[in-house]
């Protein structure tokens, strides 16, 4: 029976045919499909629903972080607790104007909902380019595809020229990314303090040297019970700052329960990436998360702090100041490039990329 099914379903052929359209998932929706193609079907056990739970994602108010040492210490304590327990939290009073957030979301919608021929100009799988538009970075390696298209813009350390960016969202993403970089610098200070280190420790390790903005567009799905917006995964970076719209669907896995990360007006979601878990020697948690598909289109902009596959020979391992005889290093040293390449080649397959680097 299995061989018969495999003969009837040429997955690689269907994946390639989809990729060759350069229109993404939005192209399928524009074509009027009423059924989700097989390459997007997820196993039924993927859809364990969020349960009624006592857990909720912490919301941390950053007001006063620069003015008052007592207030800053209280914020650091909340960040330490959230990073050790959840690996996720939301921040308010973060300093980015609400208008900047709204315009960034609107710009991303405009890019994805414009004439598909204008989007196709940016469609590529060459991640050495600063601006990349495609559907599913791991389309050819993951066991199943997600109902999502992504505009990937490397904004630091060497941002693209304005003319390299899509005109539909150029100004909005460039303004948003500058504001997000300021917030990222502050967060790395607070994470350093939460680890008991000098405020500049993580910044001096170049953790905020690189940043990419991933604009994710999740088109309206005719059968959301068959697919996912994003498979369960952890992020491969040091830190992610996420702007989500009001549709919802983001969930984290905590104590074997899926918990909603509800949209909070004006708030940004912050989560620990694999590389910060590695640096902290497992003190901070890079949490598995997912995005449900929906009958309504959804957008999000995720700022990934990492240099990804850019050439950088710096080695990263558990921070020596955190190690003791009772707390020896749990990971070998690696470069960001090596880690990112392993993560990309492995694809989102339900296992942690960190396992490959454990000692």
TrEMBL record:
<dbReference type="InterPro" id="IPR005123">
    <property type="entry name" value="Oxoglu/Fe-dep_dioxygenase_dom"/>
</dbReference>
<dbReference type="InterPro" id="IPR044861">
    <property type="entry name" value="IPNS-like_FE2OG_OXY"/>
</dbReference>
<keyword id="KW-0408">Iron</keyword>
<dbReference type="InterPro" id="IPR026992">
    <property type="entry name" value="DIOX_N"/>
</dbReference>
<dbReference type="GO" id="GO:0046872">
    <property type="term" value="F:metal ion binding"/>
</dbReference>
<keyword id="KW-0560">Oxidoreductase</keyword>
<comment type="similarity">
    <text>Belongs to the iron/ascorbate-dependent oxidoreductase family.</text>
</comment>
<feature type="domain" description="Fe2OG dioxygenase">
    <location>
        <begin position="209"/>
        <end position="308"/>
    </location>
</feature>
<protein>
    <recommendedName>
        <fullName>Fe2OG dioxygenase domain-containing protein</fullName>
    </recommendedName>
</protein>
<keyword id="KW-0479">Metal-binding</keyword>
<dbReference type="Pfam" id="PF14226">
    <property type="entry name" value="DIOX_N"/>
</dbReference>
<dbReference type="GO" id="GO:0051213">
    <property type="term" value="F:dioxygenase activity"/>
</dbReference>
<dbReference type="InterPro" id="IPR027443">
    <property type="entry name" value="IPNS-like_sf"/>
</dbReference>
<dbReference type="Pfam" id="PF03171">
    <property type="entry name" value="2OG-FeII_Oxy"/>
</dbReference>
